Amino acid sequence: MRKSLLAMAALMGAAVLPSQAAVIRVDEDTFANMGLKLQIWAQRLGKTTPGGKDLTDFSINNARIYFSGQVNKMVQFGANLDFAVHDLGVTGRGTHQGTRASRVNDAFINLRPMEEVQLMAGLYRLPFSRASLTDSYTYVIPTGYGYSTRGNFFTPFTIGSDIANAYRDAGVTLWGNIADGMLKYQLGVFDGRWDHASGALGVKDNLAFAGRIQFTPTMLGFKGEKGFTLADTYLGKQNVLTIGLGYNSQKWDDGAGNSGTAKAWTVDAMWEQKFGDIVPNLQLGYQDNKDMPAGTPIGTAKTKNKVWYAQAQLLYDQVVGLGKPALAVRYEKQDDKSAANRDTDRTGVFLNYYIKGQDAKIQLGADVVSLKNKAPNEKNYTDWTLALQTQF
After folding, report:
1. Are 60 and 84 in contact (CB under 8 A)?
2. CA–CA distance, 143 with 138 (Å, rounded to integer)
3. Of 141, 201, 206, which is closest to residue 347 (Cα–Cα)?
4. Three-state SS annotation for 126-181
5. String of DSSP letters for 354-386
6. What is the pLDDT of residues 30-59, one digit of tens each?
7. Predicted TM-score (pTM) of this structure
8. What secondary structure does DSSP assign to 202-256, as a single string?
9. What Rg do the C-alpha atoms of the chain give, in angstroms?
């Protein structure tokens, strides 16, 4: 069991896999882990229109059946089969319906001849920003990034952004860890948002490109994040200091003689270190998006925006009652550079209670959203969320 989980931790990140999983083992080198993950939410949603009403909603934010394993030491695989009630996040407010967002969230094969050179193919998180690579089951703010009725500017140029699976894309990535994780590189080509997949703005076969490089000063005693994906927190199990740089681009064409190449770049950093019973966590991120199509047809118009965030968690690494308490705070700004100048500010404050790490936790807090240059049907609002999570 331990070797199985460690093998997949090298691929998916140590904090992504739950501490327990059902294992099918053929031999020492051939096995599969499987299990179930659940996120159940109760929310008090603030009114978003003048004269509107507050809403109380209960939802399955996510129910995931997962598989991961390897055929042999050089061929690994994984899949996340996700189910949810109504659109994920804030866009589903006020609606009650059957399971609508059921899909294969991730499905990939990873060829690993050596730690330094690996090749992944399939549908998976885009190697671009820390936001796009962070597993949602490790979020310290459960509502994630870009939680707003105005949309999410943190979304890269992925095929997922066109089908409500924002951070995923289908493609192939060359990646690896150098010098025991001091340097991690990820370079990939993908279908992207406008690769003959988005109506009038994707009339041609235009592939997307994404890449990321991440540095960890392992010589100072910090541990490299060797997995393909990342975690919001390691809950004091390893000291982490990373700086990442990412780039994402794709050409688009409206079929009427207007085209361009959308470009995005990002820089982010994370620090987490255990000091006795206290584990502080600090994250910063900035993303610049430009030359995106402004409409259909667009004429000569293009749009751009910038986003940045600061996030922190303070964990008390001792059991109080049934679990370990933590306080998490996050501020983000979505800076709209279009003529409408519809900037969005959001502050999230949550109390987190880790009963068994990420495998069993409770999160309670609020998202305060402030809208600039509001339309007549918009107003500032505050949402309260009680989030329950289990993993097996």
Report:
1. yes
2. 11
3. 141
4. CCCCHHHHECHHHCCCCCCCCCCCCCCCCCCCCHHHHCCCCCEEEEEEEEEEECCC
5. EEETBTEEEEEEEEEEEESS--TT---EEEEEE
6. 999 999 999 999 999 999 989 888 988 888
7. 0.92
8. B-S---EEEEEEEE--GGGTPPP--SSSB-S--TTSS-EEEEEEEEEEEEEE-SS
9. 21
Q: What is the pLDDT of residues 72-95, one digit of tens each?
A: 999 999 999 988 765 545 555 666
| Domain contains 344 | yes
For residues 23 and 4, what is the distance between their CA atoms, to the nearest angstrom?
8
CA distance 102 to 184: 32
Cβ atoms 208, 250 nearer than 8 A: yes
Q: Is residue 280 in a domain?
A: yes
Domain containing residue 187: 42-58+113-391
- Six token digits for residue 29: 């080198």
Q: What is the pLDDT of residues 100-138, one digit of tens each?
A: 668 889 999 999 999 999 999 999 999 999 999 999 999
CB half-sphere exposure, 100, CA atoms < 13 A: 13
In a domain, 63, yes or no: no
Strand 168-178 with 55-72, pairing: unpaired
Q: What residue type is 73 in one-letter code?
A: K
- For position 340, which CATH number holds? 2.40.160.10
**What is the total count of domains within the chain?**
1
Residue 241 or 10, more confident: 241
